[in-house]
């Protein structure tokens, strides 16, 4: 039981570290990903991975608070970009992509029967 919990928490921390490093990277590093709006797909995938891993790692958390925090995170990450990295700017479509990632995570967890307690 403890080993599973340690695994999910470790995986969650790794995913969050990678995603946050990418979201707060300087603009010059992310410019190549903005071609054809590919960055929107990355935003959705990143938030989906963050939320799914967090839900698996924090299976004890209260669902309403967890999902409220997930929606808040979708907005907060984009709002913090220009504060953390001056070369970045707020983009409303990135917020929409983040929210789509949260929605996909919720749907995937529900379909897999993992939206309740997991660990």
Task: Describe this structure as you would to a colleague.
It contains five helices and no strands. The N and C termini lie close together (7 Å). Helix 1 (2-23) runs antiparallel to helix 3, helix 3 (38-57) packs across helix 5 (92-111) and helix 4 (63-84) packs antiparallel against helix 5. It is globular and about 40 Å long. It has 119 residues and is mostly helical. It has helices at 2-23, 27-30, 38-57, 63-84, 92-111.
Outline of this structure?
The chain has 119 residues and is an all-alpha fold. The protein contains 5 helices and no strands.
Write the SSE topology.
Layout: H1 2-23, H2 27-30, H3 38-57, H4 63-84, H5 92-111
Helix pairs in contact: 1-3, 3-5, 4-5
List keywords for this structure.
single chain; 119 residues; mainly alpha; 5 helices; globular
Helix/strand structural class = mainly alpha
Topology pattern, helix = H, strand = E? HHHHH
What is the 3D shape? globular
Mean pLDDT: 87
Major β-sheet, in short?
none
State the share of residues found in helices, binned by percent: over 70%
Radius of gyration over all CA atoms, rounded: 15 Å
Q: Strand fraction band? A: under 5%
Termini gap:
7 Å
**pLDDT < 50 runs, ≥5 residues:** none
What is the count of helical runs? 5
Quantity of strands, as a count? 0
